[in-house]
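Database export, one record per block. Field names are fixed; values are copied verbatim from the stored entry.
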Amino acid sequence: MDVLNTIIENSALQGMPKWYQALTLTLFLAIASIVMLTYYFLLSQGSDMIVRFSY
């Protein structure tokens, strides 16, 4: 919890209400986890995945 308080104190979220801080951090963590999972699934396919760009 101390890490989250330090992040909030050093960011623009410092003066915001608690519900806004929680919502912002939750959305950030959700987006970051989706991006990391997407990268994992793309990299785990290896050479089996072929992306063809065509019209």
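Remark 1: Residues 38 and 52 are 19 Å apart (CA to CA).
Remark 2: The mean pLDDT is 85.
End of record.
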